[in-house]
């Protein structure tokens, strides 16, 4: 059937005819179908990432916490993590580039800095954690970052209350990052600190953001 169709369009088809075994034709057919099926079944969209439970034997591995609400469980299983046993709170990316890390890492400004500072404080106050450097090692951040976030808890209570009340407001979290609040921690006078915070609110042009300060 195939030869009949070819002969209609190609008169010299006999010159290119090669006699082969039936097994060879079958092998060619299987190979061609395999190539076609692989092409037809290819994955579309962004490629998936292989997730694995942590084994701390590779310093180039990148770590993320699954859920910050459950991060405290890591302390109860700290020894397990160090010895490479299974942990329910930490995962690692395997064989990924910097672009992938940048895409999947936590974006600064989308997390409430006060909420994160409270998590750091909770970790620091837990039994068995004695230094800020140890907290940073467990959470996968630097000691300086831990210190900077803990300093935010020294802000006046009205500012902390405002940030906690708006912890789900993405506009607030994106504007009031740790870097933006950091200079306020260096102001010892409470009234001046609140005034500076009001100035930042004016810059944000809050509109719907209402902040009432009770000066004590």
UniProtKB/TrEMBL annotation:
Residues 112-167 form the ParB/Spo0J HTH domain. InterPro entries: HTH_ParB/Spo0J (IPR041468). It holds the Pfam family HTH_ParB. It comes from the Bacteria. This is ParB/Spo0J HTH domain-containing protein. It comes from Candidatus Auribacter fodinae.
């Amino acid at each position: 059937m195939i030869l009949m169709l070819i002969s209609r369009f190609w008169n010299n088809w006999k010159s290119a005819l090669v006699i082969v075994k039936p097994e060879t034709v079958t092998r060619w057919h299987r190979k061609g179908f395999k190539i076609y099926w692989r092409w037809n079944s290819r994955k579309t969209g962004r490629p998936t990432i292989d997730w694995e439970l942590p084994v701390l034997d590779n310093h180039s591995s990148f770590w993320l916490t699954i859920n910050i609400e459950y991060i405290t469980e890591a302390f109860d299983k700290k020894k397990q993590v160090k010895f490479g046993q299974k942990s329910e709170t930490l995962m690692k990316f395997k064989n990924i580039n910097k672009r992938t890390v940048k895409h999947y890492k936590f974006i600064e400004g989308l997390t409430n800095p006060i909420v994160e500072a409270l998590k750091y404080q909770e970790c620091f106050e837990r039994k068995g954690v004695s230094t800020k450097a140890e907290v940073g090692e467990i959470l996968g951040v630097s000691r300086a970052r831990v210190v900077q976030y803990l300093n935010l808890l020294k802000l006046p209570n009205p500012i902390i209350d405002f940030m906690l009340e708006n912890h789900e407001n993405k506009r607030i979290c994106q504007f009031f990052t740790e870097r933006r609040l950091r200079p306020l921690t260096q102001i010892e006078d409470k009234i001046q600190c609140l005034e500076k915070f009001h100035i930042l609110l004016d810059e944000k042009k809050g509109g719907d953001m209402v902040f009432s300060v009770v000066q004590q």
